[in-house]
Amino acid sequence: MRKKKTAQETLAIATRIVMPNETNTLGNLMGGWLLNWMDINAAIAAHRHCRRVVVTASVNNVSFNRPIRLGDIVTIESKVSRSFNSSMEVYSDVWVEDHITGKQIKSNESIYTFVAVDQNTGPIEVPELVPETELEKERYDGALRRKQLALILAGRMKPSEATELKLLFLGKE
């Protein structure tokens, strides 16, 4: 029987200030910097889930919803949203802090997939994830649909086998 962990146990938070060498000619944070920061933070969340070495398997989604400016204070919150046999989906939310009020404004989000590996870089089993909050449950449910879609696109699953996607598009039969 697999061990179990909650999403909250995997929480990784990082805060940075955007410096001049990280911006483009418009004074906005370059996307590559944000991708790097999210990858590192998400890897920490995945590591906290399994306490093993993890490698980035894929960047499934990145949404750049609003620019992040020079001098902005950026906070990245990452949690494992679901675990499978050896892989973990990690959802990251990116917040920008208002300099005057301190209010956090969501600016970006991402979904990364990590695989736990042993000393020979072979995949190893990870604990089961138990979602607790409504948002965690929503992301947990969505993770299986995202995984099935990725497997279909990679040619590793037949569409007829994607039970969760069939339910989403066709409803109960």
Question: What's the SSE blueprint?
Answer:
Elements: E1 4-6, E2 12-17, H1 31-50, E3 53-64, E4 73-83, E5 87-97, E6 104-117, E7 128-130, H2 134-153, H3 163-170
Parallel strand pairs: 1-7
Antiparallel strand pairs: 2-4, 3-6, 4-5, 5-6
Structure, briefly:
This protein is 28% helix and 35% strand. The protein is an alpha+beta fold and 173 residues long. The chain has one domain: Roll (Thiol Ester Dehydrase, Chain A).
Secondary structure category: alpha+beta
Mean pLDDT: 94
CATH superfamily: Hotdog Thioesterase
**Spatial ordering of strands, largest sheet:** 2-4-5-6-3
Would you state the CATH class? Alpha Beta
Total individual domains: 1
3D shape: globular
DSSP summary, beta strand count: 7
Contiguous low-pLDDT stretches (5 residues minimum) are none
Fraction of residues in β-strands: 25-35%
Helical amount: 25-40%
From N to C, what is the helix and strand string?
A: EEHEEEEEHH
How big is the Rg? 17 Å
Measured distance between first and last alpha carbons: 32 Å
Describe the 3D structure:
- The protein is of the alpha+beta class and 173 residues long.
- It has a single domain, classed as Thiol Ester Dehydrase, Chain A (Roll).
- The protein is built from 3 helices and 7 strands; from the N terminus they run E-E-H-E-E-E-E-E-H-H.
- It has helices at 31-50, 134-153, 163-170; strands at 4-6, 12-17, 53-64, 73-83, 87-97, 104-117, 128-130.
- The chain has a 5-stranded antiparallel β-sheet with strand order 2-4-5-6-3.
- Strand 4 and strand 5 (87-97) form a beta hairpin.
- The longest helix has 20 residues, at 31-50.
- The radius of gyration is 17 Å and the shape is globular.
- The mean pLDDT is 94.
